[in-house]
Every structure is written in structure tokens, then in C-alpha cells.
Design goal:
By secondary structure, this protein is of the alpha+beta class. It has 1 helix and 3 strands, in the order E-E-E-H.
Length: about 70
């Protein structure tokens, strides 16, 4: 079987002293002390996940942003 290459999205945010990375197309998560380490760990986690649970259909993920009003006082 031939390997195929596909691009995925990495969404990152900082939690205390670690970066957390998520792949929304697959649902995998990982973390690292740096952005590069978090993305590298996410890539590895996603590859391992896809080796067990291959994607059925090739669909294009759409991403957008939105704004929410909130009060900063708590």
C-alpha cells in the first residue's frame, strides 16, 4: 500500500509552561515545551491515530473566525 501525503491543521494555545496542539480534522491532541515540539508531537500522534483509524473520505475542512462580546470583569 502506498503512503499518501495530506495537510492538516494545527491549532495551538499556551497552558502555563506548555503549548497544547490540536488537529481538528482528526481530533488528536498533543503538547510540548515549544511550539515546534508541540507540532512535532501532534504530527506523530496523528500519524499513529491514522495508522489505526484511516480517514474514510477526503473532504476539505473550512475554517473561519468569529467574534464574541464578553465582560472581562469577574
Amino acid at each position: 500500500m502506498r503512503d499518501s501525503i495530506r495537510a492538516f491543521t494545527a491549532v495551538l494555545h499556551k497552558e502555563e509552561d506548555m503549548y497544547v496542539a490540536e488537529c481538528p480534522e482528526v481530533g488528536t491532541w498533543s503538547q510540548g515545551e515549544t511550539i515546534e515540539e508541540a507540532v512535532s508531537n501532534l504530527k506523530e500522534a496523528t500519524e499513529l491515530y491514522l495508522s489505526e483509524f484511516p480517514l474514510k473520505a477526503k473532504t476539505k475542512t473550512l475554517m473561519t473566525t468569529f467574534e464574541v462580546a464578553y465582560s472581562a470583569s469577574a
